[in-house]
Please model this.
Amino acid sequence: MNENISSLLFYPFDKEQIAYPNYDAKTLFWGAQYFYGIEKFKNIDCVQSFKPDAALWEGHGIKIQSELLQQERYQNIFCHLPKQKESALYMLAQSLDYLEDNGLLVAVAANDAGGKKIESWMKELGANPTSLSKSKCRIVWAYKNTRDQQKIDFYISKGAQQNMNIDGLNFMSQPGIFGWDKIDKGSKLLIQNLPPKLEGKGADFGCGYGYLSSQVLKKHTNINKLYALDADYNALQCAKKNLAHYQENIDIEYDWVDLTVPQKDLRNLDWIVMNPPFHEGKQAKNEVGHNFIKQAAQCLKKSGSLYMVANSHLPYEKLLDKLFSNVHKVSEEQGYKIFVVQK
Ligand SMILES: C[S@@+](CC[C@H](N)C(=O)[O-])C[C@H]1O[C@@H](n2cnc3c(N)ncnc32)[C@H](O)[C@@H]1O
Model:
């Protein structure tokens, strides 16, 4: 689908289903990509926690926040909902909480990414929604004149950052983060295949809530600097908490970055661990992984090592052979392959 789904947030106005809002009123765009027409609103906040989408707002004179600020209240809230259910309900519940009385909430999602559920979710939260369908998406809106505060509080706590016991390990995590309530099988295999000694200055490309980093730091005590990097701001906030106790001995830097584009300040790394994402929005299936590999090659020092896990069916070998001098597939099991490669 080529259409920017976020732009459907104005569809109920264009279809004259609801009156155009007051453009001077305090308005929030949450989870949305930039689309033409947003500038009509003169008093907006924009929350976007995924770095590549946040970057799309640059150049439009609109400041992006990576998270919702607690003290604000809004007359209009426009949400492009995330795919993950608890995370979408969290966004709707928070929105109803942050709206002024009689304020307007409009939400959109693709039908195959929760769109068909939005109306029932809003009803569950005590609102009285109306909906439209377009381009295999659902656009749903309601005014805050009814609500069920108990349900709102329940879904806010269910979708918030929380302490999890995962496979006997304690992690702070949050719905919406990649594999938020489990340990990724591929990452576990990567840990089992790391060399006995890792030291110096390294990075975790796409660190998520910090599983790989935490296991690396637990076992390898000669590391003096770690870059924990992810495009998901919420994941990075969890990683910060999950790695905090290593901070006393190791310099850990957390950066909210898009690793598919050059990281010009990140150079001469001794090693990188990564479990790259392989599908993202409109990008071709392998493009994100390929770009991660290209950036890793740029950031490593000569003879630095990349330790990477990938789903068995993903064709990364050709690119690895092109960019690195020694490429070893050290294991292939349970649908994953593990590479150890040297620049
Ligand atoms: C397969 S997950 C691995 C997460 C974590 N390392 C683990 O092992 O559980 C890939 C991670 O890459 C992040 N990611 C996706 N696209 C990204 C991008 N363009 N730049 C940086 N990180 C990205 C995701 O947020 C996710 O945390």
The pocket of S-adenosylmethionine is lined by residues 52, 178-179, 184, 187, 206-208, 211-212, 230-232, 235, 258-260, 275, 277, 280, 288 (CB under 6 Å).
